[in-house]
Amino acid sequence: MSAELNTTAVAAWLGAHLAGFSGPVSATKFSGGQSNPTYLLKTPARNYVLRRKPPGVLLKSAHAVEREFRVQRALEGSDVPVAKMHILCEDETVIGSPFYIMDEVEGRNFDSPSLPGMTPPERGALIDEMNRVLAAIHDVDITAVGLSDYGPSGNYYRRQVDRWSKQYSATQTDDLPDMTALIDWLDGNIPADDGQRTLVHGDYRLDNLLFSKDDARCLAVLDWELSTIGHPYADLAAVIMQWSMPATREGRGLAGVDRTALGLWSDQQFIERYCARRGLADIDNFGFYLAFCYFRMAAILQGVKKRALDGNASDPERGLQLGQYVPAFARQGLEAAKGVL
After folding, report:
1. Is the residue at 50 inside a domain?
2. HSE of 83 in the Cβ direction (CA atoms, 13 Å)?
3. DSSP run (H or E) holding 87
């Protein structure tokens, strides 16, 4: 049995509830994630992936694996590639927290958006596919797939700013004037509701996608923990925000990278192609959406830092490393708000 996962209990429960399952089971934890611990399960017949809530005391509504399971099952057969969902266990007594089982998707995953080792045409094709999938997420008919109640009605940004401000306050460990100022600015500059109500991923970036080993096809979008029904520009701005980060393992951005030479798209190219795919005109007030994304990421990383300090992070050492970026995200959020970016 693994250090954190009772594979005997998992095998017993799956043997009783998942058709075709047969143990024994061995488990290997995927490294690097800061959200819900995820494991590769190997059995004599086939492999699965198990994703569970982390141990310890959690913030209300955080780490909702039940929602992850629901949204991915709803998207099966749509233009949004997802892993096949098998079964959800909501009985916390089995391994100490709810979990779900999905297919293992064998594909390529890229930590760095600069896509080292590839040719310019290969890079361009992957970014184009990333753009296509994002537009597909936002074009999902939420009523047809049974997700119309997956998020509350009303102004998405009002709801999100309130939610993440509370989450940040609940996990705050340092006094950051930039974060306070950013929260105040967002609170006073919420855009009027423009009527767009779509599925949003909530953490859309290259390293949350799995691609075919042979071409640029995306095989699965991963990590749906923050998904909800909301406003699509938050996902779009999140991509642009990520690319502004340092081109390091921790930053996973493109700051200082010669994108043209590498065959990578500019921010404007990505936005224009997205708008063309969805039949949209130019996006007004993009600075707000960008500032919002910096704010939300700062709040998320503050939560990661707090879990690491409390000893219940999925990867405590990396959690503390990521927590060091909270002041930078707050500062860049203010710059976006001022139109500097």
Report:
1. yes
2. 26
3. strand 85-89
Whole-angstrom distance, CA of residue 112 vs CA of residue 251: 9
Same domain for 94 and 168, yes or no, is: no
For residue 241, being part of any structural domain is answered with yes
pTM for this prediction: 0.89
Listing DSSP states for 100-138 in one string gives EEEE----B--S-TT-TT--HHHHHHHHHHHHHHHHHHH
Q: Answer yes or no: do 244 and 158 share one domain.
A: yes
Give the CA radius of gyration of the chain. Answer: 20
**What CATH number does residue 148 fall under?**
3.90.1200.10
Do 77 and 198 fall into the same domain? no
Are 154 and 57 contained in the same domain? no
Hey, what are 260's tokens? 């043209």
Evaluated on CA atoms 124, 248, 307, 14, the torsion sign reads positive
Strands 228-230 and 198-200: antiparallel
- 42: domain CATH number? 3.30.200.20
φ, ψ of residue 161 to 5 degrees: the values are -60, -40
In a domain, 115, yes or no: no
* N-term to C-term CA, the chain: 49
Domain total of the chain:
2
Show pLDDT as tens, one digit a residue, over the chain (341 residues): 344 799 999 999 999 999 999 989 999 998 765 468 899 999 999 999 999 987 654 445 555 899 999 999 999 999 999 999 999 999 999 999 999 999 999 999 999 999 999 999 999 999 999 999 999 999 999 999 999 999 998 999 999 999 999 999 999 998 999 999 999 999 999 999 899 999 999 999 999 999 999 999 999 999 999 899 999 999 999 999 999 988 988 788 999 999 999 999 999 999 999 999 999 988 999 999 999 999 999 999 999 898 888 887 767 888 888 888 899 999 999 999 988 55
81 and 166 both lie in a single domain: no
* Domain carrying residue 32: 7-103
| Residue 37: inside a domain | yes
